[in-house]
Automatic annotation (TrEMBL):
Annotated Pfam families: OKR_DC_1, OKR_DC_1_C
Cofactor(s) named in the record: pyridoxal 5'-phosphate
Alphabetized GO MF terms: transaminase activity
Assigned keywords, A-Z: Aminotransferase, Decarboxylase, Lyase, Pyridoxal phosphate, Transferase
The name this protein goes by in its record: Aminotransferase class I/II-fold pyridoxal phosphate-dependent enzyme
Protein origin, superkingdom: Bacteria
Residue ranges of the TM segments: none
Domain Orn/Lys/Arg decarboxylases family 1 pyridoxal-P attachment site: 223-237
Family to which the UniProt record says this protein belongs: Belongs to the Orn/Lys/Arg decarboxylase class-I family.
């Protein structure tokens, strides 16, 4: 990494300098630097509207970068050790779609984990690739999925010698990192391209106590939500291709396919600034956050009835690393489900990232400090103080996700004639839509899969526990879109 060059923020500087020219705009956006914006919008966004710009040839072009944006993306590649890095203004969703589009032809088999995010299914619908699922390991005591291990990858590769690529989710939402280096080597030995959904890992490269990042594990293409765990604006991400990856130009073309032709320059400037921040302060910040997380975990574990697992998760064979900045807080010892705990925490002014089974997930990132952590621990202490500790036996209710039975390629199911049937009548039919609870955004059923009794039981269990679906035509899930027979 070139430390001197990393001090710069070429695109943010260029945007700033351009705004200072006070040009009279005869171009989009139509509100013309805020002047014509709705009153409420002006009140909400104020002076910021003066820099609401996108696609200005005076600055640079995301899809044909030649100036400061090219330099900004090169600095990001230099920081992460990539051959080439692409900025995304459409989150990791676009990056995942693009890497699948770049690597898979229609009909190609790609190995994916059970915990594939819904954007992976979108990538399959767009590309026409066919998923073959790798079995995942589950930690029953912690109620979390561990993802696939080397044995499940090998089994999937043997069952699908035709597979051209494999996609891993690394780390999981809960911060659990599989043995990616080993699995990448196994996949490469069979000629598979290795794609990694590292949505929750933009910070991994900056501290040795965090799991090794996917590029360092040898992955070919890595999608990261910079906005999730680094400092950029929501919906901004990066896609990295490793040095020498033969598909890089195809990835560049695919990134242009799945993103707006009018990328907001704030998003691009914020990626540039987040990269600069990580380069200059990443290690110090992650050191601070790890200390904060360790303190929080210790305090949470001292509360009767509350548990927050830590590095002991490494005792499972499938696990190669753990990101301690993820706090999975289990309330089963207080007789609470995760959903109930979430609502109690919300009443106390704490909003968590996700809820499942008997736990909630609180994540620590750059914006956290002693105060936020004390607020979280304090709210948990208050919840614990008002309840009696109960035996945890029988209270855990987060089951592993049902094993998918792929009948049709997702793209074929997407285009098939469909009909709407009651959830009860959908058993044995082929889903024409995804059923996803968000977060974590992992489809329980993806388009093209058989509606199995296990999937129905899982869906009913989630609905009964108060979880809401996202993306289905009937969000109440009384009915389901299935392929017409
Ligand atoms: C594992 C995983 N992959 C991909 C995504 C999509 O990322 P983005 O929201 O940046 O589009 C998410 C979002 O929650 C995710 O959790």
């Amino acid at each position: 990494m070139n430390k001197d060059a990393q001090q710069k923020a070429p695109f943010a500087d260029a945007l700033d300098a351009y705004c200072r020219l006070h040009m009279v705009p005869f171009h989009t956006p139509g509100h013309k630097l805020g002047q014509g914006a709705p009153q409420r919008q002006r009140e909400l966004f104020g002076e910021a509207l003066r820099s609401d710009l996108g696609l200005m040839y005076a600055l640079d072009d995301l899809f044909q970068p030649e100036g400061p944006l090219k330099e900004a993306m090169e600095l990001a590649a230099d920081l992460y050790g990539a051959g080439r890095t692409f900025f995304s203004i459409n989150g990791t969703t676009a990056c995942i779609e693009a890497m699948i589009l770049a690597v898979c032809q229609p009909g190609d088999t790609i190995l994916i984990p059970r915990e594939a995010h819904r954007s992976v299914i979108s990538g399959l619908i767009l590309s026409g690739a066919v998923p073959a699922y790798m079995e995942s390991r589950f930690a029953p005591a912690e109620e979390v999925s561990l993802g696939p291990d080397a044995a499940s990858l090998t089994a999937a590769m043997e069952a699908h010698p035709e597979a051209v690529a494999v996609l891993f989710t690394y780390p999981t939402y809960d911060g659990i990192a599989g043995k990616l280096q080993e699995m990448t080597a196994l996949a490469h030995a069979r000629g598979l391209t290795v794609l990694v959904d590292e949505a929750h890992g933009a910070h991994l490269a900056f501290h040795d106590d965090l799991p090794k990042d996917a590029l360092a594990c040898g992955a070919d293409c890595v999608a990261q939500s910079t906005h999730k765990l680094a400092g950029s604006l929501t919906q901004t991400s990066m896609l990295h291709c490793r040095q020498g990856f033969a598909g890089t130009d195809r990835v560049a073309a695919a990134m242009a396919l799945v993103q707006s032709t009018s990328p907001h320059y704030w998003f691009l400037a914020s990626l540039d600034l987040a990269r600069q921040q990580l380069a200059l302060f990443g290690e110090a910040e992650e050191t601070r956050l790890l200390a904060l997380a360790r303190e929080a975990r210790q305090a949470l574990n001292s509360l009767a009835g509350i548990r927050c697992f830590g590095k002991e998760i490494l005792r499972y064979d499938a696990v190669g690393g753990f990101d301690e900045t993820k706090l999975t807080i289990d309330f089963s010892g207080l007789g609470l489900s995760g959903r109930e705990a979430e609502l109690l925490l919300r009443k106390a002014g704490i909003e968590v990232e996700l809820t499942a089974g008997s736990h909630v997930l609180a994540l620590l990132a750059l914006g956290d400090d002693d105060r936020s952590v004390h607020a979280l621990v304090g709210a948990c202490r208050t919840i614990a103080a008002g309840r009696t500790v109960v035996t945890t036996q029988g209270l855990r209710d987060e089951a592993p996700l049902p094993v998918p039975h792929v009948v049709l390629p997702p793209r074929q199911a997407w285009y098939a004639q469909r009909e709407c049937v009651s959830l009860a009548d959908s058993a044995g039919r082929i889903a024409a839509e995804n059923v996803t609870f968000y977060p974590p955004g992992i489809p329980v059923l993806a388009a093209g899969e058989a509606v199995t009794t296990e999937a129905l039981a899982y869906i009913r269990g989630k609905l009964a526990a108060g979880y809401e679906t996202n993306g289905a035509a009937d969000p109440s899930l009384q009915t389901l879109q299935v392929v017409r027979e």
